[in-house]
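Subject: mismatched residue count in predicted assembly?

I count 701 residues in my input, but I want to confirm that the predicted structure covers every chain. Input:
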Amino acid sequence: MSLRMRLAAIFAFGSAVLIAAAGLAFLWQLHTSLAAALDSELRQRAAALAARLASGPLPASSPAGPDQTGSHTGQFPAAEQVAQVLTPGGVVVYSSGTEGTGPLLSSAELWQVAGGPLTFTAVIEGEQLRMLASEVRRRSHPAITVVGVPTDIADAAQAHAQLAMLIGGPPVVLAAGLGGWLLTGAALRPVGRMRRRLEEITEHDASARLPVPATGDEIAALAVTMNGLLDRLARALARQRAFTADAGHELRTPLTALKAELELATRAGKSRQALADAVRAAAGDADRLIRLAEDLLLLARADEGAAFLAPERIDLAHELHAAARRFASTAAARSVAISVQAAGQLDVVADRGRVRQALDNLIDNALRHGPPGSTVEVTGRCAVATDGGGGRQQVVAVEVRDHGPGFPPDFLPRAFERFQRSDPARGRADGGAGLGLAIVATIARAHHGTVGAGNHPSGGARVRIELPADSWP
Amino acid sequence: MRVLVVEDEMRTAGLLRRGLCEEGYSVDIAVDGPDAVWRASEFSYDAVVLDVMLPGCDGIEVCRELRSRGRWAPVLMLTARDDLAARVRGLDSGADDYLAKPFSFDELFARLRALIRRGAPERPAQLRCGGLRLDPATRQAWRGEAELALSPKEFALLELFLRHPGQVLTRTRILEHVWDYAYDGVSNVVDQYVGYLRRKIDRPFGTAQLETVRGVGYRLRAAPPRAA
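Triage response: the counts match. Full output below for your records.
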């Protein structure tokens, strides 16, 4: 069942219950107030009759016709006036006549009247009457008066009210249901429009957005939220596409070289030396492809949030010296010196292989940008970092600084993004795929650390990694 | 045959040079866009092998710049991107052929031979003649800076005239090129459409570039005379 149908049914059912309850309450109220009016009338008439009995002789019983006992009952049509005076024994001493000649009270009722006034209903000659019997004293003798009024007017009023409700109720219930149906239809129409639009967007055009109605209501809020979701999805999709396209481009470049190299080598008339050179060059391309594949794999795993770390306690001071030793020959070939300053133990819990990879990327970058004769400075020390929430944390900070031209200012905000090269003109041959710093950042963040890049005031690029000191979160 | 290789990746550039040299071409290498434009403007090449992704400005801009400078050497684009949009953009910018990396040398050589065979006539991506300009790729046409709103048939007709400026085109020839073989309509449809076209390209601008050659056909004059 649709929401609209459900709401209309709930509307109808709710209004039916409401109308029934209100109607019953009204009928009950009507009944009690009519009964109270009758009772009060009865009491007045009984009092008047008692007064007459106390003061004067009994009026003559009138077998039929108008009551002539006094003007106090004159406002009632004669036929509706019923009055009887009985002795406590049940003998009729006076009767207005309309009720017949027999006593109106049974002997049991006579007993009850001795205890106090008695109200009851009786049917006399087909007419329903409300009666009041009470004990009075007539010249010091006890006597019992019985007065009655017909209830037909009150009954008719109640019957009319009931009928009105039975006839008027169902249309009101129906109208409520219809109103609910129409109202929910009107309320849900923008939702339906939005759903259809969303369907079109997901099918055809990822850049389209939902129109936000200017109503500022819940529907507008929903549209805004939906648009936010679409934006995030589109951004994620664009990032993913850009990554795939960039990765494809970076993979094709060494593949192109490899294929071209091998094709040229297979052409006739190659010397042994040329073939050996070609094989060496192809091996270099293969190495480049392997590195690239490893880097892309690491980034993809980190993106998936997969656990790719094998943490252990390592001494970063030791790792810094080891990294400097690994690059000793490269540095010498470029006439660049590497100085390491790392005081004492710098313990962190981290994946040794990944930390080495990050350090290698940083030192490799620094060596490539440092001019001959300069020094690449690698420092490691303990520091206290304050995180965003104001908490303080012991960290191990590693900084690698070169004395080269530094980062171009417009590159700094993108320094840790993928496939970004600080100097596009230097191309891939020199700068690699532009993944080095992105890998460093990914590794640092996977260790709950941070990275930062900047230029030293006195020149040269510097990159800083901070890792939490000796505690695996 | 002298070929310009525009490639920023030194290893690929070196391999291209080696392969092309072995095939008997003379090879120059440009490593970025401005360098490529300068070399291609300064020297006459029989073909250009152009990488799309270049530092500075990309290969598509290089191609457009060469064409706007009136350099008509055939351009073979090389790219590591394989998306359709990039291929279309490259060809519409004035490139003559397109090859995706990684490529095979045999295919590269075959394509280069085919391109050089065709020679280097003027073949602008946008057609121009005496204030009229038409871009077949975007299907837009202009008189000066004012864009013309043309129906598909009018557009095809204008394109035919612009491809043969100053030549008299007979009704039969026009009918053959703009209407298909199955066309079986009224015989004066060409006159009708030439009339429509004049109402859009000449009359509002006070020119009379599209003229009637009595008894023969129509001609688009290279320089429009003022209408009488």
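Residues 3-55 of chain A form the longest helix (53 residues). Marking this ticket as 'not a bug'.
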